[in-house]
Structure formats: C-alpha cells, structure tokens
Amino acid sequence: MYTPKIQRGFVLITSIVFLIAITIAVVYAVRSATLREHSAGNNRARSQAFEMAQLAMRRAQAQLTEEVIFPASGCANGLCNKEDASKTYLLNSTNWSSGTGTCAIDSTSCNKVKGGNTAITQTVAGVAAQPRWAIRDLANNTDGDCTFYEVWAQGTGADPSSSVLLKSIVKACES
Where are the domains of the chain? Predict the structure, then answer.
C-alpha cells in the first residue's frame, strides 16, 4: 500500500513568490501609464495655452495697424503708457487674471479697427479664460517714422493653471 509523504509546502511558497512578482510588475505598469497620461495632459494644456497666447499676440499686433492713443498713466483697455510702473503692472499675474488694464479678444471696447468704428472680436471655446493682450508704448525708442512697442499676450488652456505669457517688441512705422 502507498503511504503519502509529508508535504513541505514548496509549491505554495513558489506560487506566492510568483504572485508577488506579477503584482509588483502590474503596479509598476499602471503607475507608469498613469504618469504618461498626466504628462500628455499637461503637454496638451500647455500647447493650448501657448496657441491662445499666440492668438492674442496677433490680435494685439493687428491693433498697431490703427492709430493708437495711449493713456496718460497706467494701463487701460490693453494700452499702457511708457512709465516703468506699467511694465511692473504687466508682470503681475493678478492683473492678467482679473483683466484690469488688459484687453480680452472677445471685448468690443478695445478691439477697435478701421478708425474705431468696427470691433473685431472672437470668442474661443474650451479655454478657462479668453486670451488677453496689452501694448506698452516705448516712446523713448523711436527710429525716424517708426515707434517701438512692447506687446504682451496671455493665453490660458482648458485648465486655469496652464497659462502662458508672451512678450514681443514690435517696430511700427508710418507708411
């Protein structure tokens, strides 16, 4: 007659070790995939914010094709005078988020063209805030019939924390 030998649990221990190894591999794969998804989402939000800032920049530069009257001090309707305080003002992110002194591309009060009779506006869907622009007069920097301007543009993606601020120096000449 056959008598079974005492089992020592080798198969059980081996199975548990394999299960632990597989669990660690799966957890690592899930974390890696989640990290990649977050990274892709952040890149998309940053790209969208950059595109909105470029849109606002083009709109501000188009504003310079018309006669522009700058305020005596500070910033109003997207136009800032040549004072150093206005540059500090534009660097403050609170002023961009509140919209004070800047111009949103969907505003009829500051997107005037063709002699001030027509407002060219547009509204962008799917963003946390409409793109904004501001133009700072650099009146001390002139070149004959040309004047230099500092153009600022801010764009926000779908997520309010994804924001891009662009700055450009533009030389506008009377023709």
Answer: 10-173
